[in-house]
Specification:
Blueprint: E1 2-8, H1 27-41, E2 49-52, H2 56-68, E3 76-78, H3 88-95, E4 103-108, H4 112-120, E5 133-138, E6 150-155
Helix pairs in contact: 1-2
Amino acid sequence: MKTIIFVRHGKSSWEYSVDDKDRPLKQRGIDDAHKVALELKRTNNVIDACFSSPANRALHTASIFLRMLSVNFEQFMVQDALYDFSGESVLHFLKSLNDELSSIMIFGHNHALTALVNMLGDTYLENLPTSGVAIVEFNFNHWSDLKDGKTKQIIIPKELR
């Protein structure tokens, strides 16, 4: 059994003239990330490892979640493959994971995450919103077999406000 917790980064600011990777979170993004992480904490998911895009907005979101969920930062790695908007690099990354990992959390971007949740889960999402979470479970032992999961939970920040 494998589990992926997909987390889209929080709402980011376009206020600053910086490269895309350097865009910070807006206050709403910070607030929503806290709310969603607190809701996720109630589900008591075991997390073996967490991976984030190197983009500032994804890293900040990951930091909020890891602190709120009391995840050891030694379980956290930045992965360039997660700075992806199509989903191809993310899917390749997921299929190459160490089979010893059972439950992982990834912090990334749209449209990649919405596409993957729709492709791998059994519940259609129009859009995984910023700070949104989708948990998909799989009945296999090898990440290379990644397909045909069951969407266990979706957490939308707007529903928590």
